[in-house]
Amino acid sequence: METKMIWANLVSHDLQRTVRFYTDLGFKPNGKGNDELVSFLFGETNFVIHFFTPKRFENAIKSKSSDTKAGNEIIFSLSASSREAVDGWFEKVKQAGGEIFAQPENFDLGYTFGFADPDGHKFNFLYWPGM
Prior knowledge:
Number of strands: 8
CATH superfamily of the largest domain: 2,3-Dihydroxybiphenyl 1,2-Dioxygenase, domain 1
Order of helices and strands: EHEEEHEHEEE
Organism: Flavobacterium humi
Oligomer: single chain
Structural class: alpha/beta
CATH architecture of the largest domain: Roll
Distance between the termini: 29 Å
Radius of gyration: 15 Å
CATH class of the largest domain: Alpha Beta
Largest sheet: 4 strands, mixed
Domain VOC: 4-128
Protein name: Glyoxalase
Strand content: 25-35%
Pfam families: Glyoxalase (PF00903)
InterPro entries: Glyas_Bleomycin-R_OHBP_Dase (IPR029068), Glyas_Fos-R_dOase_dom (IPR004360), VOC_core (IPR037523)
């Protein structure tokens, strides 16, 4: 038995704010969405992240969603093609209203910075030459 695809489902407390944020970053919408869901495509492989209203998300998981302001659920890593591209994304994220939680910095394998979207979902952009 094989899995056909994997995607992520996250909570959005304001779908229109989520649409503005990810559109401002240049990510492509995945369909039109509705009053319970918006969806975006990430990277060359078009990884899908759905953003659901809290009610719809909690109905799906049959429990409460995480408080992303108080803790972490996951961090998504987005690959950049160069250090300059990481710096470009850093500026773009700031302009779009993302919360920077880790300034651009070198790490053992490359260069990175971290940010949270308006709902507190964590991402980092990184340039990793060996990847």
